Amino acid sequence: MSVLLELVCFIPGCVFFPGSFVCLRKYFRSRLQARQKFQNDDIEGLATAVAMRLTSVWNALFMIMTGLITITTIGEDITNDKSPVLVPYCYMGVPYMFYDVYAMFITYQFEKPHIRKQSLFRQILSYYLESPMITTHHLMVGILLYPLVLYFLDGKGDFILGIYFLTECSTPFLSFRYIMKKLKLNMPTLFLVNDICILVIFFCCRILMIPFSYWMYGRNVNVAFLDVPFVIPRMCNILNFIIFIMQLVWFWMIVKAAARVISKFGKPSPSQESNGKLRVEEVNSNHMHNKAE
């Protein structure tokens, strides 16, 4: 790609994602103020968190579309055939990764307001220690993966990268869960259905993704599945191993969260329990009063 085309793809990413965050934040701030359900001190933080998550959904949808177009347009030679959309989106995706780290940091400041009294360095350090995996993931993708695709792979392996892009299929559901929790929506059935979708999609698109990509590559070059790690570059194996471990850790966290939802499903909420107790006490009181009469 020429420098002009690179800028044409890169600049929209620098504008769209931060712009989407600012506009969504302003919109939800006004909506939450109008509902008068939350305190003024909480509104800014909630609007920031919701805007951050919805902007991540935009990126996920773009990546899903890029991945689908890539794997459906590449021919039989999945090693050398090139995708018309993968490299352009990588230029657009680089600024997203760094924007999202910044947006998550701002959200963290609202979630932990006491840290704003500390120095900026201590705030950044505290944020990183709180969310090391997602921050490292974003920085690795922005600093290593996208430049690797753009400048070192020379158009090879687009099909495999398209499969990797489909890992974002779980992001809309994860963001939806986060938003429901932030807004304190009492919808246990919706939580349960969403968590089941997360488990199934995350397992298929993130856990099985790496073994599937190895199997597809081996099939293309006539190499047995178990021999693929020995014929591809060592760095590919190292990066895939790191990514796979991170996905397993996230999947375990999702399983535990889903288990908590399932354990609570069907049980009355604290407010319902208190209302039930009040009704029982009222019935007992009336019963005792009638006996006294």
Question: How would you describe what is shown here?
Answer:
79% of the residues lie in helices and 0% in strands. By secondary structure, it is mainly α. Helix 2 (40-73) packs antiparallel against helix 3 and helix 3 (86-111) packs antiparallel against helix 5 (132-152). The longest helix is centred in the N-terminal third of the chain and has 34 residues, at 40-73. The radius of gyration is 24 Å and the shape is globular. The chain starts with a helix and ends with a helix.
Helices, strands, pairings?
Layout: H1 3-35, H2 40-73, H3 86-111, H4 120-130, H5 132-152, H6 158-165, H7 171-182, H8 188-207, H9 209-221, H10 234-264, H11 270-292
Helix pairs in contact: 1-2, 1-3, 2-3, 2-6, 2-7, 3-5, 7-8, 8-10
